[in-house]
Design goal:
This protein is mainly alpha-helical. The protein has ten helices and four strands.
Length: about 240
């Protein structure tokens, strides 16, 4: 089947983001922007969801944690044994966590430690045949899911647009402006109580006990979840 934009209907027509921010958000947080917060929150949630799909498969099918899965992929992908410190740097984990994880993988026969050929104070870590066999089964499945999920949601042209927009966000997120704190921003806390009273009053009008169980109360920060998990069809509505 081709990837022609015009031929492939989208199953996502008319969908809305999982996370919405209510109308009084900017009243309580004058320095914030409702749309920007919705974008930020949905980007974070989507990233968590997508990596969670991969992590769940690695754990359920092969008993690998997310870090162990990435460690095997890093070592095998390097094409040569690596020092534990190099692996830890690439995974952004501490030396202590690295040692514990390598101990577990070595006990399972998925990696082996061996002496460094030129420095007796160091060790190298290599992936075993059993580790490679797991990667040969796991990685194709993960990449097939990536295509299935992204192709089901976005046309090729939309994927290109998404990458361009993500590149912009990534560029800004790496700047000093993004890393600096914004401690001078204000909060008008009294407006939150008023917003909650209004939501409860609207929610109580004409709803049964079953209705209340189906509609989520507004949690802290005005952020409302429209759904709890990918397999739950019922969406949460905005307050009111």
């Amino acid at each position: 089947m081709g990837r022609d934009d015009a031929r492939r209907p989208s199953p996502t027509r008319g969908v809305r983001p999982w996370i919405v921010v209510d109308d009084s958000f900017e009243d309580e947080y004058p320095g914030a922007d409702r749309l920007a917060t919705e974008c930020y929150a949905n980007l974070v949630r989507t990233g968590d969801m997508l990596i969670g799909l991969h992590n769940r498969e690695a754990l359920d099918d092969f008993g690998l944690s997310s870090t162990a899965k990435m460690a095997l992929a890093v070592i095998e992908g390097a094409g040569e044994p690596l020092e534990p410190g190099v692996i830890a740097d690439r995974l952004i984990i501490t030396a202590g966590s690295m040692t514990s994880m390598l101990d577990t993988l070595e006990k399972r026969g998925l990696v082996r430690r061996k002496p460094h050929p030129t420095d007796r104070r160091k060790l190298l870590v290599d992936v075993t045949d059993d580790g490679v066999a797991i990667l040969d089964e796991l990685l194709p499945a993960l990449h097939a899911r990536e295509r299935a999920v992204v192709d089901a949601a976005l046309t090729p042209s939309e994927q290109t647009q998404l990458l361009a927009m993500l590149a912009k966000l990534q560029a800004v997120a790496g700047t000093d402006m993004a890393r600096e704190g914004h401690r001078g921003a204000a909060r008008r806390r009294e407006l939150r109580a008023a917003a909650l009273r209004g939501w409860h009053a609207a929610a109580d009008r004409g709803r049964t006990a079953d209705d209340h169980r189906r509609h989520e109360l507004p949690p802290h920060g005005h952020v409302l979840l429209r759904a709890q998990a990918p397999d739950q069809g019922a969406l949460r509505r905005r307050p009111g």
